[in-house]
Amino acid sequence: MRRVILKRVDGGEVGKGRQNSAVDVLVERIVGLTRSQPRVSRDSSGIRIEFDVTPDATRQWQQVLALLEQGTAFGMTDTEEAQVAWVRMPPEANDDDPAAR
User: Fold this and answer.
1) Which residues face 48 on adjacent strands?
2) What is the mean pLDDT of residues 7-20?
3) Torsional class of 15: left (φ above 0), alpha (ψ -120 to 50), beta (otherwise)
4) Rounded to two decimals, what is the model's pTM?
């Protein structure tokens, strides 16, 4: 079994010394469904989480969709290489992180 270490937006590990933020929890759930590491970026308008739509994600699409619906916006982008799903979270979704303030 492969061990995945999740990284918070601030670079720390998920679950290390603090309560998980909504973003951390969402990332962890995405990893559980897709078996791949999502990409997390932050800007002044919020946090964007994106991930490749893997066969694992496709088989569990209703659960993936339920996760995407937790954001303020979500969608899918087709590229030549892959399909990428994304979800936007408001900046306050990471409020328990002092680096987010």
Assistant:
1) 41, 88
2) 47
3) left
4) 0.72
